[in-house]
């Protein structure tokens, strides 16, 4: 398992290579990429900020939980922080599994939980020069502490 | 007294004009009391009515009892991915 | 759109690069990889054979249908033929889309239909020296011709 | 008479010992009649009871009328991916 928050460009192929072993018949890679628009407004780039220490821990929790929930061999996740241009990879998730069904399911689970639970924020820089923190997902703390 | 390190990210950092504050509270204080103290800081009236915090890297409820040296991060709605 | 049957090693990154455009926020890559076992039996490698002209047409039909069914921007598929060693990519499917949900769904649709409909066959070479054509999926021709 | 090019892949090629046969049938013949002709070839008794064929790259039903020059491929159960 490999979970990092990084300021360096993400190498999707390297993330895939980290997970595959000879017992695996399927690798699913999800790459989130900076789009040139959001809600119809032209975007020039994004800035991602993370609470690094906690984000890495949360990602690790999420991957560990997916590894026990699905029949998958390994999971690797890298999330970028800092300034990104259109076309750059913001997040890459690779899942390797003996069979494809589990690989797809685990991949989906990791990206959905990442978006809901990991302390990362996104500031959009628009083509017109304005900037704004993106409306995010409100965290719901556990019911008992 | 106990000292806690408070961290502010993204929009909250901009609202408070700082990314870190060390605050002091009486022993036995709960997260809810720290939140009140944060709300008394300059500029804090722009914070939303509901605040989510993580204590030592775990999301925490308002009744969580704080300990000396805790790291409490105030977490705006998240938008990774 | 890009659909090929190829005797050359598949470059997953190149397949991904073919589909992404600046309007896309998500790229999903599925890679089928040669496993070292099948139904518990150690596998040394695979030989894939295709009815090349028809396989490329069928793949193209499948991708065109996925492009109209889902909100995706582009799809690229490469399927390998010939002798493959354990760890080599047999098939790569890349889907780019503005949003991830459509990318995952189209990716899944293409691999499922590929496995059911495209005239490709697989011969397993076992570690013990034996070889066998894999039991495949029986095609159901259209109900009217 | 019409001439059709028959292709055999994978296990079928091994059963018949050839990957291609040119067969002749009366004009107006249907796929079902070609299948019977294939079943009369040496070794064909090892073919399965049900055969799927594609005529000019499209899966076809037994009642498909054949034309001179058609390419008819006999498609064993597929196993790509």
Fold and architecture overview:
The complex is a heterotetramer, with two copies of chain A (145 residues) and two copies of chain B (81 residues). Helices cover 30% and strands 38% of the residues of chain A. Chain A is an alpha+beta fold. In chain A, helix 2 packs antiparallel against helix 3. The longest helix of chain A has 18 residues. Chain A is globular. Chain A starts with a strand and ends in a 12-residue tail after the last strand. Chain B is α+β, with helices and mostly antiparallel strands. Helices cover 20% and strands 28% of the residues of chain B. A five-stranded mixed beta sheet of chain B has the order 2-1-5-3-4. The longest helix of chain B has 9 residues. Chain B starts with a strand and ends in a 7-residue tail after the last strand. Chains in contact: A-B, A-C, C-D. Chains A and B meet through strand 4, helix 2, helix 3 and strand 8 of A and loops of B. Strand 2 of chain A pairs antiparallel with strand 2 of chain C, so a sheet runs across the interface.
Layout of secondary structure:
The complex is a heterotetramer, with two copies of chain A (145 residues) and two copies of chain B (81 residues).
Chain A: E1 2-6, H1 12-19, E2 26-33, E3 37-38, E4 41-50, H2 52-69, E5 74-80, E6 82-85, E7 89-97, H3 100-117, E8 120-126, E9 131-133
Parallel strand pairs in A: 1-5
Antiparallel strand pairs in A: 2-7, 3-4, 4-6, 4-8, 5-7, 8-9
Helix pairs in contact in A: 2-3
Chain B: E1 2-8, H1 10-16, E2 20-25, H2 31-39, E3 53-55, E4 58-60, E5 71-74
Parallel strand pairs in B: 1-5
Antiparallel strand pairs in B: 1-2, 3-4, 3-5
List keywords for this structure.
heterotetramer, A: 145 residues, alpha+beta, five-stranded antiparallel beta sheet, 9 strands, B: 81 residues, five-stranded mixed beta sheet, globular
